[in-house]
Structure formats: structure tokens, C-alpha cells
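Posting this for the archive.
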Amino acid sequence: MEFQHELIIPNEDLPFKLFSFEGRNGNYIREKHWHTSVEIFAVMEGTLSFYRNEKEYPLRAGEFLIINSNEIHSIHAPERNETVVLQIPLKQFEDYFTAQRYIRFSSTAGDPKEDAHMAGLIRKLYRVYGEQETGYEFRTRSLYFEILYLLVRKYRVTEVQDRELRYSRRLDALSRITAYMREHYSEELKLSEVAATFGYSAEYLSRMFKKYAKINFKTYLQDIRMAYAYRDLMGTDKTISQIALENGFCGSRAFSKEFQKRYGILPSEVRKQKCQKSAMV
């Protein structure tokens, strides 16, 4: 199975991740991948195509597709488009899990009016969050919870075949481990200790990461730390030393070295550029 695990970090001020699709300019392909979060792609302009279980799902303006947790998929965007992506942590639906820690959603409620309403809510959520007018925090969460309500009320699939459960379990074990790592990434996590926490040997867990995430344990942990550190660097006034220590790096020197290796620039230079842009506004 050739597919990768995608690391998803929520927006700093939200319990979910909301953004404009990175393939907006067209000529874009996202190869097969999977993630723990439930994901909704809502196309506002243009077109794009999803591939799920080798089946194509073309989307046009006004349409959306729900990608379930652990569902392997790829995306093709040959032309320009404007698409909103909403990624919802799986734990938001804990009260609705089956006994097998499983939940699945359909991409249609079976009623065009309901589907149009859902698409409209996602567009409105993106607009309200983007404009950030007075009180937007309350309205953003209001719209988000209405979307969650519709998902469990109108889109949840209550009858699931054993074949689907078996398929999901192949990735669920790693999903629980990566969720644990995202909760404890600022601590000194060791492969052997994480493996023992979930009843595995270090060797088995190492093979699991290489097979299903296409990455080793250490690199994945560094990816998590760097994602949160980058968010702090761009969204807070914390010192670089603070950011390094709070995100699991042993110090600012180690953080700066890893940052430069990944982005080709020092975090201090990014912070300086950010300040210069702010001064120009």
C-alpha cells in the first residue's frame, strides 16, 4: 500500500483546522494519503476531483465531499479553483463512536436542500473567520457546532459493514498513537516508551510507522514539534527560546538548526520579516 499519513494541526485559536485549499492555482496533485481527522472539501469556484478506493468523485462549485477518518484518498486539481477545507479532530465525535471506536459519514444527506445548507454553512464559516469582525469568535464556533450537529444528525452512517470495520482497524492503531504523540509532543517521547504504552515492542512500532506513515518515528515527532513551533513563531510574541522549549526542543540552538534545515531560513530571520511587514501595515 503506497500512501502517506498526513499530520493535521488545528488553527491556533480554533478546535479545528480551516483553510483555503493549497491547490487553488491548478496543475496540482496530492497523492494518496490518510489522516485521523474528518475532512470536508467544499468547492466554491472551479472544479477538482477526489479519488477514494480508486473511484473518482468530481466536485463542482457548490458541492462538497466528506473524507472519513483513516480513509485513503488523493486529489487532482488540474484547473484553478476556490475550495474551503475543514478538518475536524476525530475526538469531537467520541460520544457517537461505535464499540469499535468507529464513525463514518456519507457525503450526502439524501436531500439536496440539506446538502446546500451544509455547503452554505462551510462557506459562511470561512468568511466569518476570515473577516474577523467584532464577535467573530462566537459566530465561528456557532457555525462550527451547527456543522457538527448536521454531521451526526443527517450525515452519520449508522449501519456499517464488517469489511469497512476491518479496513479501518488497519490504520486505527497508528491513529491512536499519533494522537497520543500530538498530545505529549512537548515531552521527552521515546520510541520504546510510546510502544510500551500501547503494548507494542519498539521494533514493531518502528515498522508500523515505516509501513503506514512512510516516515520514521523520530521524524514524525519532529514534524509535530516543528508544526506547533512554526505556528507559535508566526502567531505569538514568545521568544525563540520559549518557543523551542515549549515545543519539545532541547534549546533555541537545536530548534534553529532544525528550522533552517527544513525552511532554509533561521527563525530569527522569519520573526524579523514578520515585524517589518507589520510595521508597513
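The chain is about 50% helix and 20% strand. The chain has two domains: 4-159, 185-280.
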